[in-house]
Amino acid sequence: MTMGSGASASVVVPRNFRLLEELERGEKGIGDGTVSYGMDDGDDIFMRSWTGTIIGPLNCVHEGRIYQLKLVCDKDYPDKPPAVRFHSRINLTCVNQDTGMVEPNKLPMLSSWHRDYTMEHILTHLKKEMAAPHNRKLPQPPEGTFFELIESMHE
Question: Are 61 and 131 in contact (CB under 8 A)?
Fold first, then answer.
């Protein structure tokens, strides 16, 4: 195949290049600044462990609250979604209330994951979920409370 052949070939970006792109984007800041993410450990050459932050959307019970999350990208990312867990306590229909894990079967974006999705997409989608009619008025745990740490996000 030559460059000018007109045939469309899909280029699969290797995992680490993809994560480097996401890191760069996360460090620059996203949109209006109410969603951010970055690596937990700059020395982790496999780029597995990430931290995300969401500032709750306006006009709902989450307004002004700051939520911390952990995302773990295993070796299959971005072909498979990262494990996503809230560290800050939150009451959302897609979050396990014992562990803080976002349950993929309850969040359509994770259950129908596409390789093109990013951690930014997940965080912005969760922010939209907070403002959704079924979540926007749910009673919330006291601000500043956290789910207990668990050793591994993958079983």
Answer: no
What letter would DSSP give residue 111? H
The identity of residue 23, as a single letter, is L
Separation between Cα atoms, residue 111 and residue 103, nearest integer Å: 9
31-37 contacts, C-beta under 8 A, 24 or more apart: 31/124, 34/127, 35/120, 35/123, 35/124, 35/127, 36/123, 37/71, 37/119, 37/120, 37/123
Tens-level pLDDT at each residue, the chain (155 residues): 344 444 556 788 899 999 999 999 988 877 778 999 999 998 999 999 999 999 999 999 999 999 999 999 999 999 999 999 999 999 999 999 999 999 999 999 999 999 999 999 999 999 999 999 999 999 999 999 999 876 655 54
- Contact between 110 and 38 under an 8 Å Cβ cutoff? The reply is no
Cα separation, 3 vs 41, whole angstroms:
40
- Could you give the 3-state DSSP secondary structure of residue 54? strand
